[in-house]
Amino acid sequence: MNCLIKDLGAQVGNEVTLRGWMYNRRSSKTLHFLQLRDGSGVIQGVVVQAEVSPQTWKAAGDATMESSVAVTGLVREDKRAPTGVELSVRDVEVLHQAQEYPIQKKEHGIDYLLDLRHLWLRSTRQRAIMKVRATIIRACRDFLDQDGFTLIDAPIFTPNACEGTTTLFETEYFGSKAYLTQSGQLYMEAAAMALGRVYCFGPTFRAEKSKTRRHLTEFWMVEPEVAFNDWQDNMALQERFVSAMVGRVLAECGPDLKALERDTSKLEKVVAPFPRISYTEAIERLQAAGRPVQWGDDFGAEDETLLSESFDRPLFVYQYPAAIKAFYMKPNPADPRVALCNDLLAPEGYGEVIGAGQRMDDLEMLTAKIQEHGLPMKNFEWFLDLRRYGTVPHSGFGMGIERAVSWICGLQHVREAIPFPRTMYRNTP
RNA sequence: UCCUCGAUAGCUCAAUGGUAGAGCAACCGGCUGUUAACCGGUAGGUUGUAGGUUCGAAUCCUACUCGAGGAGCCA
């Protein structure tokens, strides 16, 4: 009977066939310990020379690392096994004898591993990250779907910069130019006026020459947008969203977080309410700590880390200066120098995982902003229509999936948080 | 784009101007419970590329290539 390794606990006493790969082998004269993996888990198969045919003994001894195999044997409880079960092997069939495998059980450099990303994904650690990533995505979708949101897919080809500041990937589009999207947000604003509560989930592209552990040129973003939500409703939504996401990972990914040696006590503290400080208060805190920042500056990575270190859960920083935020952010009517926006800074130095804001809902002010930023008015007529036909206060946010994965998994680089990372100097494999 | 650092065996690294080495992987052998198994042996090199200094360069100098970390920008 074919069986998955993760289901073997219920098969004690039965003979099963596992199909997978030889992860490692340790041998002595009359014993082989086969470490077998099938994508669902890892189990040790014990081959005793006296108990198997000469053919099986030879196959077990000759199978190279990462050879594909079908292994048949008796499932047996064993206290020495990490998962409590082992396989007493009766038969080993080598489906494909692998060539010398380039990834060893010792440490490797990041560059070497990224060149071998297609094989690196087979490792225990990378598998755990991908499981957590999938759970995070599922948690985001389930939360929004159950909260009355409608999934709306935004276009990838766009006629212009959404935010007008960042560098976009340009592509030829039947004789004219198009750009790969850097955000679905403007389209979500249109959709929110049609369906009330909407979100998009898709890839996003930034051609900035950023070379840091927090940047990719292609990454995934979830962007909810809600009609009639003001900036404070928006923060309340983010708070529920993020705590639900972390709670789901804790509930469903225990073994994966353990494989990643993640300190889960830090994640267990991620429950609402999250602390909220204004940009102005943040500047005061940084200045008191000796940082050379002035009101009007944007924060660097070090500043964000310093701010978040005072708290044991994600930190909202709200009402940044309008001058350093995107053109579509609504200014605070009581103090137009600042926008009704917020960032969410993850704990433990992981920095900005969410950028959020209430949108400019006034036709005249938005028109002026687009002109101020030197953006082509023609391309934004449709966006201005949203302010001509029943404009309402509305808010939304964008969360970078890879940054969330990095934080929750405790990774050093966002490159590990995506199956096939695209960075400034790498678009292979 | 800027700053810093790096490139030596398949991999991870040592060798600070004087005979290029270790661990792992591979291959051969040993070992009856291994957990990155262990023990012994064999083989493995145009020291990123091009030039320069020197009796002599992996080592010092110049340029280039590729990469890493950071800055800016952002999620």
3D structure, described in words:
The protein starts with 14 loop residues before the first strand and ends in a 20-residue tail after the last helix. The model has no long low-confidence stretch (mean pLDDT 91). The chain contains 13 helices and 18 strands. Helix 4 (124-146) packs across helix 6 (231-252). The protein has two domains: 5-96, OB fold (Dihydrolipoamide Acetyltransferase, E2P) (Beta Barrel), CATH 2.40.50.140; 117-417, BirA Bifunctional Protein, domain 2 (2-Layer Sandwich). The chain has helices at residues 54-62, 110-115, 117-120, 124-146, 185-195, 231-252, 254-259, 264-268, 279-288, 301-308, 363-372, 381-388, 401-409, and strands spanning 15-28, 31-37, 42-48, 68-77, 85-96, 150-151, 157-158, 170-173, 176-180, 197-205, 218-227, 276-278, 315-318, 331-332, 335-339, 341-346, 351-358, 394-400. Strands 6-10-11-18-17-16-13-12 form an eight-stranded mixed beta sheet, with helices on both faces. The protein has 429 residues and is α+β, with helices and mostly antiparallel strands.
